[in-house]
Structure formats: structure tokens, C-alpha cells
Amino acid sequence: MAERGPMRAASLTGIAMLLFSVGCVARLAPPAPNEARAESARGLYTAAALSDAREMVERVLRISGRLRAAGAPLCGDEVAPLLGINVAQRIAGPEIGHFQEAYLRTFEVGSAVTVTIIDPASPAARAGVHTGDRILSVNGRRAREYSDVFEILRDEPDRPPRLRVQREGEILELEIERVPACAYEVWVDWTSEITTRRRKHDHAGISVGMIRFVESDDELAAVIAHELAHRILGGRDGSYPKNEVRADEIGLYLAARAGFDETAATSFWERFALEKPWMIRWEPDSKRAKEPPHARVAERLLAMRTFLTQIARLRAEGRPLLVSAGDARP
Amino acid sequence: MRGALVWLGSLLTLALASVAHPAERVDGALEAEVARLRSAAFRLRLERSIRVLRVSEAVRIHGRELCGGKVSPVLGVIAASEEEVPRFFRETARRDFGVGEKVRLLWVEVGYPAAQAGLQAGDLILEVDGRRLLTATSLYSRNPGRIGPHLNMRVERHGRVFDVQVEAPLGCFAASTVRGADYANASMGGGQVAITTGMLRFVESNDEIALILGHEIAHHILSHTASRPSYEADADYMGCYLAARAGFDVSVAPHLWERFGRFEPFSLDNDRRSHPGTPERALALEATIEEIHSKQIRGEPLWPREAP
Question: CA-to-CA distance for B52 and B75, rounded, in angstroms?
Fold first, then answer.
């Protein structure tokens, strides 16, 4: 009976005591937290969450910046100089929660377009752009909204960007080295779901759940490269699910060209499949009636292995990693 | 006639397009890949379920005194019938574990009543106390007509049918399941505790799982049917006692909520209608831990305080 450990206490307890009557709510007397201490704890937890947020955004900026720059030759005329910054601005609207408010306060976000987080290795960082800078104009054109910044850059892809910023009462003109990159912004979405969201044609949201789920920069690069590939294909990639396979192919080349380990894509999608088994192959279910994007992982993994073999062959033969995106961009 | 020709033409285009792409290769390779991935995913789900079972059964047994009449037999098994398996796992469950219409044991935990009675993974449970067993969940159901420690099971193993008497003590009424969802969450509904795969990736130890299951079981004991800050505070409090009674290290509780607040910053708010803020929960648990420790030192029984 040596292995009966877990059972011993149970056999000693005897007959169950009917402390709480069935069907009505019993009330307990838990200790009440001290409000002042709770507030100060909230400050500490928030600071930790903000530091996580900064780290995640920096990471996404760094990886997406590398991919966008390496992918520039494939992006045709949809190119803009790379900044490597994240911006935010306060807008009038519904009340926001504690964390969002803390985010805006910490990064000193005002009603003007404010630089919040900068990739330390980016062209903007090298030109001396600081967190908290208010962007007044880009290339002499006024930037009222954050989207203006990126639209102006896209309009004038061939000149080094000039930012006019306000910093602590001073007005500064900063000239940024021109690094051509695909005109594509990658943001962090604050949701735990392991997912990506394509917004319009030139934005992608990478979820916090995704950033936490990937096991390496190479895996995160694989995810972002796939989204960027959709942008490069720009609707010329056929319909679902064929466009997913096509985006996988271009994505692998993009990751490889940017110096990431492109084979991380298959390890990522394998783990994704184990974590979300309903995505292995799509079969309608009473709970999940609509097919979500990326729901045919098995099919895509098979195709990805073929593409990886092609990339390995090109590399072994010392040939450039050129993907046949030509048929997608006439 | 012309219509038919056009139709044929578009069929041909489709066929050519599909041949051209590696994604649409022979079905055999795709079938094999689907089977391989689903099989691995099912094993991962089972491993996680086993982890949850170990914690859950310990909490249930040791919490029994606190659970009043809300009790059910503690067996220490994971079982399934086909209809309880999500659709995308059905084929895998049938092929790898023989899960069909009848309830089959997928796992029998050593040291618990089912294992002590000689039950094995792979056994089919046909009847319990003379009644046909339709679902694995009903193995955990309260049986109001029977409080005694014996369950008579009719078992089928390798085609042979025999009866086994399982000496199964009662524990808190709870059947724990693992739900596939990305967000870190656990929920209770009618005695069924569902813990998400996202939560299992988030937790750092079985002590944390015990606190989470304890919290959900407490909701059931206390007959909570909705979410209110006071209910959550009570469930945290009793959940901590339940975990401590089962010998888990509850001193990790404040850290669990601190990490959760950082992980899901929207849980930091205290002014919501359903849950207290994570800092409030961490601090209340810090005080609960002191209360529990002083009771342990004085050798007093671990009973939560009731409201006057």
C-alpha cells in the first residue's frame, strides 16, 4: 500500500461534512487587500508589462525592418525608405483602460504623432530620432496623422527622409539615411491569440500571443515574411488556399535573403499545428463554422519542404536566391 | 451544348492549375502528413491532460471535507468515447487508441483507485453499478443514490468481459478537461473544469495549476454561477486552501498573479464588473498564505473562514 499516498488523507476524513448547502451561494471571509499597496503593486506590474511591450515592438521592428529591406527588389514600386520606429498619437474617443493609459503616459504620447519605440539599429536611431519626439513634418509636408508619415515616405521613395520633430520645446531637422524597403508596416496587436492580422494591403498585425509562441527570431521572421509575401503578391496570388502556399514560397525566399534561417518556418508551423490541431486540415465543425486563414497546415508544410529543397539547391550551386515572383508581378 | 463546352473548358483549367502546384500533390502524401500531425497533437493533448489529472485528483481528494455534498468518485483515469473527442481528433483517437462508441481508458494513473483495482489503459468500461456507461464524463458524475466506496465496473479487455470492483473514495465534484484555446484561461461549468492550452503554456509549475483548479472547483463548491469580484475573491481564497490541503506550494500564488498581470495587462484593472484586478488578487492571496501557514504551524485544520 506504499503507493497509496494520495489516498491516505481521504480515507481518514470520514464522512463528508455538509458545510455548504447545495444551490445557494456560500460567502467566505477572504482577507481584503490594502488599497494603497494594491495601487503600488499595479504600478510595478504595469511597468513590467510596458517593458515587455517595448521589447516586443523593438523585436518586431528589427525583424520586419530586415525583411522589408531585403525584400525591396521584389516590391517593385511599392517601396519606401525604412525608418524603424513605432509611433502613436492620442485621439478623442472612448475611455481607455489602465494599461493603454499607462502606455500613452510612459511614451509621452500627445495629440501629435509621437515616436514611441525605436529599433536601436534602425536608420532613424542612427539619425538621432528619440522616443517622445513629435513628428511635425516629413520631407517638408505636414504630418497630422500617423498614416501621413508613411504615405509621404511612399510618395517620395527616392530621397533620404527629412523629419522635422519637436523635442522639449526645440524644433529639430533630422536627415535620415535612405534604406529602401518594402512599403509595409508591421505592428504588434495586443491579443493572446496566436495569430496575425492583415489590415488593408500595407499593414500587418503580429499578435503578442504569436511573439510569445515563436521560439526564435528565425521563427518570427518566418511569420512576418509570410505576411510580407502576401503584400508582394498583392492580390496576384490567386484565391485561398493557393495564395497561402504562394505566400509561403515567397516568404521562405524573403527570410533566406534577409539572412534568417528559412528552415525555421517548418519547425514553426509544426508546433503551430500541434498547438492548434483544428488548423491541420480544415473540416467544418459546429463550433468553428468558417475556415480561418492558415487552416491547412499539413498541405502547406508539404509544399514548404519542396521550396526549402529548392532554396538549399540554389545555395549549394552558389546561385542567387531569386524567387520566381515575376509571374506574380507582371 | 455550348454551355457544356465552356463548363468542360473551365474544368480543364482547374485541373491544369492544380497539377502545376506542389501544394496539390497526390492525396496519399497529404493524408500521411495530416495523420502524422494529428497523432502528435493528440499525444501532446493527452500529456497535458495527464498533468492536469494528477493535480486535479490530488486537489479533489484532499479538498473533500470542504466540498459538502458536491462530491464524486476519484478514479485517476482519463477516458473518452468518440462523441467526446473533438471532430478533428476522432480519426486519430480511433486509430491510435481505439476510441469508439464505448468509453475507453486512455490513461490510468498509478497510485489511484482505478490502477489499484487493476484497470489498464486500453480497457473499455461497459457498465458502472449495473448501468450502461455512455460517456467518460459520467464517470465523474455525482451519483446521488450511492455514497459508498465501491464501484462495480464491467470491463472489456482484448475481447474478454469481466467485472472489477473499484474502491473509489469521494472527492470534490470536478471533471477536468483541457480545452484548445490560445488565451490563458480556466472556467467552470456544472462541475466541468476546462483549462486552456494557453494557460498550460503560461503556468510554470503544478503548484500554479493547483491554485487555478482550486479556484475553479471553489466556484462550484460555493455555487457561483456568474462572475463577480466578490465571487472571484472567495474562489481565490478557497482555491488556495484546496491547493494547500493537497500539499502544493501555495506561496507561488502572488507571483502567479503578478506574472498574469504582466502577461495580460488588461487584467490589471480593478474597476471591472467581473474580476478584481491582479494586484488585488495577489495581495489577498499573500494574506491568505500567511493565514494558511500559521494554521499549518499550529497544527490546525485548513478551513477557510466563513463570512459571519
Answer: 14
B279 with A42: Cβ contact below 8 A: yes
Q: Which residue of A has its CA nearest to B284?
A: A33
Please tell me the class of the B175-298 domain. Answer: alpha beta
Domains and CATH numbers, chain A: 47-182 (2.30.42.10), 213-327 (no CATH)
Q: How many CB atoms lie within 10 A of CB A136?
A: 17
**Residue contact A302–B29, C-beta within 8 A:** yes
Which CATH number does B75-168 carry? Answer: 2.30.42.10
Question: What ipTM was predicted for this assembly?
Answer: 0.86
Q: Is A245 on the interface with B (CB under 8 A)?
A: yes
Cross-chain CB nearest to A10 (options B64, B236, B307): B64
C-alpha cell of A158?
527616392
* A319 Cβ under 8 Å from any chain B Cβ: no
Alpha-carbon distance B50 to nearest alpha carbon in chain A (angstroms)? 16
The two beta strands, A170-175 and A162-167, are antiparallel
Cβ B221 vs Cβ A20: under 8 Å: yes
Give pLDDT tens digits for A79-130: 999 999 999 999 887 778 888 899 999 988 989 999 999 999 999 999 999 9
